[in-house]
Amino acid sequence: MRMTLRHRFSLRKFCRAFALLALLSPTVAFAWQIDASRSVVTFSYEEDGKAQSGTFDRVGGTITHIKGFEHNSKADLKVETASLDLGDALREGVLATGPWLDSAAHPHAVFSLDRLRPLGGNEYEATGSLRIKDRTLPFSFPLRLEDNGQEARVRGGLTFKRTDFNLRDVVLESFVAIGDTIRIDFDIRAFQGRHTRS
User: How much is the pTM?
Assistant: First the structure.
């Protein structure tokens, strides 16, 4: 059956409307570049019963999200393990070795965000995975995401057992008591980059 002229015009209008909706669709997401100079990742642990802490000074990666559709957000936060700063060159050198962070073979620790679950306001539950050396484990933890349209700020933290990532040295630990619990806190700033299709 041949399409009438009226049907052709109706189909053309439909196609134009569909194209407009596609352009306005939330599948157009914003890629945010992490501002390494203003981002910080800190960690804390216990050594011989005393609290110790330090920072990783080189942080990079991307955050992809669109305001109002944060549940579709993705992120890859990369930390250079050799940028460890404990204020003690000896400790830093030890923790960069194979039994610990093995920075030569595994230069980055990576957290990958899979999704955010809104908890109200700027609070969310983040679900993703953390890779240290050759091990990757799933994690869920609360975080705060603020986005003013030009700059995004993400703050949160998670706790894990270092032995789950094979961060241990039997010889050293026969002389020094090192706690198994590691706490990582991050304060990440990012600026808006290019547009991408999800």
Answer: 0.79
